[in-house]
Amino acid sequence: MDWGAVVVAAGRGTRMGAADNKPYLELAGRTVLAHTLEAFEQCSAVTSIILVVSSGEQQKAGEIIRLEGFRKISLIIPGGAERQDSVYAGLAALHTEGVLVHDAARPLVTAKQITACCKAAEEHGASALAVPVKDTIKVSDGNGFIIATPERRTLWSVQTPQAFWRVELMDAHRQAREESAAATDDAMLLERLGRKVAIVEGDYANIKITTPEDLPIAELLLARRMGEE
Q1: For the site Positions MEP for the nucleophilic attack, which positions are given (predicted)?
Q2: Position 60 in a domain
Q3: 146 lies in a domain?
Q4: pLDDT at 15
Q5: Three-class HEC string of 128-190
Q6: How many domains does the chain have?
Q7: What backbone phi and psi angles, to 5 degrees, belong to 69?
Protein backbone atom coordinates (compact mmCIF):
# COMPACT_ATOMS: atom_id res chain seq x y z
CA MET A 1 0.00 0.00 0.00
CA ASP A 2 1.44 3.37 -0.96
CA TRP A 3 1.15 6.25 1.47
CA GLY A 4 1.01 9.99 1.03
CA ALA A 5 0.68 12.75 3.59
CA VAL A 6 -1.33 15.93 3.81
CA VAL A 7 0.55 18.28 6.12
CA VAL A 8 -1.66 21.17 7.18
CA ALA A 9 0.23 24.42 7.75
CA ALA A 10 -2.58 26.86 6.97
CA GLY A 11 -3.60 27.89 10.49
CA ARG A 12 -3.16 31.49 11.60
CA GLY A 13 -2.24 30.71 15.20
CA THR A 14 -3.59 33.91 16.73
CA ARG A 15 -3.02 32.54 20.25
CA MET A 16 0.75 32.60 19.67
CA GLY A 17 0.76 36.39 19.40
CA ALA A 18 3.74 36.18 17.03
CA ALA A 19 4.48 38.04 13.81
CA ASP A 20 4.92 34.77 11.88
CA ASN A 21 2.44 31.91 11.63
CA LYS A 22 3.30 28.84 13.71
CA PRO A 23 5.00 26.77 10.98
CA TYR A 24 7.61 29.50 10.43
CA LEU A 25 8.58 30.09 14.05
CA GLU A 26 12.10 29.09 15.04
CA LEU A 27 12.60 25.90 17.01
CA ALA A 28 16.15 24.84 17.87
CA GLY A 29 17.66 26.71 14.92
CA ARG A 30 15.14 25.54 12.31
CA THR A 31 11.53 26.33 11.54
CA VAL A 32 8.73 24.33 13.13
CA LEU A 33 7.75 23.29 9.60
CA ALA A 34 11.21 21.91 8.85
CA HIS A 35 11.17 19.69 11.94
CA THR A 36 7.71 18.40 11.02
CA LEU A 37 8.51 17.64 7.38
CA GLU A 38 11.78 15.93 8.28
CA ALA A 39 9.91 13.17 10.12
CA PHE A 40 7.86 12.41 7.00
CA GLU A 41 10.98 12.58 4.81
CA GLN A 42 12.57 9.96 7.08
CA CYS A 43 9.55 7.64 7.01
CA SER A 44 10.07 5.07 4.25
CA ALA A 45 6.32 4.35 4.01
CA VAL A 46 5.56 7.88 2.82
CA THR A 47 6.23 8.58 -0.85
CA SER A 48 4.48 11.91 -1.41
CA ILE A 49 3.62 14.98 0.67
CA ILE A 50 1.04 17.66 -0.09
CA LEU A 51 1.79 20.76 1.96
CA VAL A 52 -1.21 23.01 2.57
CA VAL A 53 -0.30 26.57 3.58
CA SER A 54 -2.05 29.86 4.18
CA SER A 55 -2.82 31.95 1.12
CA GLY A 56 0.24 33.93 0.07
CA GLU A 57 2.74 31.69 1.89
CA GLN A 58 3.53 29.19 -0.86
CA GLN A 59 6.78 30.92 -1.80
CA LYS A 60 7.85 31.17 1.85
CA ALA A 61 7.21 27.46 2.42
CA GLY A 62 8.91 26.58 -0.86
CA GLU A 63 12.07 28.39 0.19
CA ILE A 64 12.23 26.36 3.41
CA ILE A 65 11.83 23.14 1.45
CA ARG A 66 14.57 24.19 -0.98
CA LEU A 67 17.00 25.12 1.80
CA GLU A 68 16.31 21.90 3.72
CA GLY A 69 16.63 19.74 0.61
CA PHE A 70 13.35 17.92 1.14
CA ARG A 71 12.45 15.65 -1.80
CA LYS A 72 8.99 14.23 -1.06
CA ILE A 73 6.99 17.46 -1.36
CA SER A 74 4.81 16.99 -4.45
CA LEU A 75 2.78 20.19 -4.18
CA ILE A 76 2.39 23.28 -2.03
CA ILE A 77 -1.20 24.48 -2.20
CA PRO A 78 -3.23 27.21 -0.48
CA GLY A 79 -5.62 26.17 2.26
CA GLY A 80 -9.22 27.09 2.87
CA ALA A 81 -11.13 29.10 5.44
CA GLU A 82 -11.12 26.25 7.99
CA ARG A 83 -8.83 23.31 8.72
CA GLN A 84 -11.44 20.95 7.28
CA ASP A 85 -11.34 22.86 3.98
CA SER A 86 -7.55 22.72 3.92
CA VAL A 87 -7.46 18.96 4.47
CA TYR A 88 -10.05 18.44 1.73
CA ALA A 89 -7.93 20.47 -0.70
CA GLY A 90 -4.90 18.36 0.18
CA LEU A 91 -6.80 15.11 -0.28
CA ALA A 92 -7.99 16.22 -3.72
CA ALA A 93 -4.37 16.81 -4.77
CA LEU A 94 -3.08 13.44 -3.54
CA HIS A 95 -3.21 10.17 -5.49
CA THR A 96 -1.93 7.50 -3.09
CA GLU A 97 -4.03 4.66 -1.63
CA GLY A 98 -3.39 5.70 1.94
CA VAL A 99 -3.22 9.16 3.45
CA LEU A 100 -1.79 10.53 6.66
CA VAL A 101 -3.16 13.85 7.86
CA HIS A 102 -0.84 15.79 10.13
CA ASP A 103 -0.77 19.24 11.69
CA ALA A 104 2.45 21.10 10.85
CA ALA A 105 2.36 22.56 14.36
CA ARG A 106 3.36 19.14 15.80
CA PRO A 107 7.11 19.21 15.05
CA LEU A 108 8.11 16.45 17.47
CA VAL A 109 6.37 13.65 15.62
CA THR A 110 8.69 10.77 14.70
CA ALA A 111 9.04 8.52 11.67
CA LYS A 112 8.38 5.55 13.97
CA GLN A 113 5.00 7.00 15.01
CA ILE A 114 4.08 7.70 11.39
CA THR A 115 4.91 4.12 10.42
CA ALA A 116 2.86 2.75 13.33
CA CYS A 117 -0.17 4.73 12.16
CA CYS A 118 0.22 3.37 8.62
CA LYS A 119 0.40 -0.23 9.83
CA ALA A 120 -2.65 0.19 12.09
CA ALA A 121 -4.69 1.74 9.28
CA GLU A 122 -3.72 -1.05 6.88
CA GLU A 123 -4.98 -3.56 9.44
CA HIS A 124 -8.07 -1.75 10.75
CA GLY A 125 -9.00 0.76 8.03
CA ALA A 126 -8.14 3.93 9.96
CA SER A 127 -5.97 4.97 12.88
CA ALA A 128 -5.13 7.96 15.05
CA LEU A 129 -2.17 8.68 17.28
CA ALA A 130 -3.29 9.38 20.86
CA VAL A 131 -2.16 9.32 24.49
CA PRO A 132 -4.13 8.39 27.63
CA VAL A 133 -5.59 11.39 29.45
CA LYS A 134 -3.77 12.07 32.73
CA ASP A 135 -6.15 14.56 34.31
CA THR A 136 -9.69 14.03 35.50
CA ILE A 137 -11.99 15.52 32.86
CA LYS A 138 -15.24 17.29 33.72
CA VAL A 139 -18.24 18.09 31.52
CA SER A 140 -19.79 21.51 32.08
CA ASP A 141 -23.31 22.74 31.50
CA GLY A 142 -22.01 25.74 29.55
CA ASN A 143 -22.67 28.04 32.49
CA GLY A 144 -19.67 27.25 34.65
CA PHE A 145 -21.00 24.22 36.53
CA ILE A 146 -19.91 20.57 36.39
CA ILE A 147 -22.57 18.11 35.31
CA ALA A 148 -20.59 14.92 34.69
CA THR A 149 -17.22 13.19 35.09
CA PRO A 150 -16.35 10.71 32.32
CA GLU A 151 -14.44 7.57 33.28
CA ARG A 152 -10.80 8.57 32.80
CA ARG A 153 -9.59 5.14 31.69
CA THR A 154 -11.73 5.46 28.55
CA LEU A 155 -10.41 8.90 27.57
CA TRP A 156 -7.60 9.56 25.12
CA SER A 157 -6.10 12.84 23.96
CA VAL A 158 -5.92 12.54 20.20
CA GLN A 159 -2.94 13.80 18.19
CA THR A 160 -1.80 13.62 14.60
CA PRO A 161 -0.91 11.94 12.34
CA GLN A 162 -4.14 10.15 11.60
CA ALA A 163 -4.14 7.54 8.84
CA PHE A 164 -6.88 6.46 6.43
CA TRP A 165 -7.66 4.93 3.08
CA ARG A 166 -7.70 8.10 1.00
CA VAL A 167 -10.93 7.28 -0.88
CA GLU A 168 -12.79 6.64 2.38
CA LEU A 169 -11.61 9.88 3.95
CA MET A 170 -12.50 11.81 0.79
CA ASP A 171 -16.00 10.33 0.93
CA ALA A 172 -16.35 11.26 4.60
CA HIS A 173 -15.26 14.82 3.83
CA ARG A 174 -17.71 15.10 0.93
CA GLN A 175 -20.59 13.93 3.08
CA ALA A 176 -19.65 16.37 5.83
CA ARG A 177 -19.55 19.22 3.32
CA GLU A 178 -22.95 18.29 1.91
CA GLU A 179 -24.44 18.20 5.41
CA SER A 180 -22.52 21.26 6.71
CA ALA A 181 -21.05 19.08 9.46
CA ALA A 182 -17.96 20.48 11.18
CA ALA A 183 -15.27 18.32 12.79
CA THR A 184 -12.20 19.20 14.82
CA ASP A 185 -10.21 16.28 13.43
CA ASP A 186 -10.48 13.81 10.56
CA ALA A 187 -11.18 10.74 12.67
CA MET A 188 -14.39 12.43 13.77
CA LEU A 189 -15.62 12.46 10.17
CA LEU A 190 -15.34 8.67 9.97
CA GLU A 191 -16.83 8.24 13.44
CA ARG A 192 -19.99 10.04 12.36
CA LEU A 193 -20.40 7.46 9.59
CA GLY A 194 -20.07 4.59 12.05
CA ARG A 195 -16.52 3.64 11.04
CA LYS A 196 -14.00 2.42 13.60
CA VAL A 197 -10.71 4.24 14.07
CA ALA A 198 -7.91 2.33 15.82
CA ILE A 199 -5.92 4.05 18.55
CA VAL A 200 -2.14 4.04 18.18
CA GLU A 201 -0.56 4.96 21.48
CA GLY A 202 1.75 7.90 20.94
CA ASP A 203 4.03 10.04 23.07
CA TYR A 204 3.24 12.98 25.33
CA ALA A 205 6.20 14.74 23.70
CA ASN A 206 4.25 15.06 20.44
CA ILE A 207 2.85 18.42 21.51
CA LYS A 208 1.09 20.94 19.32
CA ILE A 209 2.57 24.44 19.20
CA THR A 210 -0.46 26.51 20.15
CA THR A 211 0.49 29.12 22.76
CA PRO A 212 3.80 30.95 23.49
CA GLU A 213 4.84 28.62 26.32
CA ASP A 214 4.75 25.63 23.97
CA LEU A 215 7.89 26.68 22.07
CA PRO A 216 10.34 26.50 25.02
CA ILE A 217 8.74 23.21 26.09
CA ALA A 218 9.27 21.84 22.58
CA GLU A 219 12.90 23.04 22.66
CA LEU A 220 13.50 21.14 25.91
CA LEU A 221 11.86 17.99 24.59
CA LEU A 222 13.85 18.20 21.37
CA ALA A 223 17.12 18.72 23.26
CA ARG A 224 16.38 15.70 25.44
CA ARG A 225 15.64 13.58 22.38
CA MET A 226 18.86 14.66 20.67
CA GLY A 227 20.78 13.88 23.87
CA GLU A 228 19.32 10.38 23.96
CA GLU A 229 20.35 9.78 20.35
Answers
A1: 152, 208
A2: yes
A3: no
A4: 60
A5: EEEEECCCCCCEECCCCCEEECCCHHHCEEEEEEEEEEHHHHHHHHHHHHHCCCCCCCHHHHH
A6: 1
A7: 75, 25
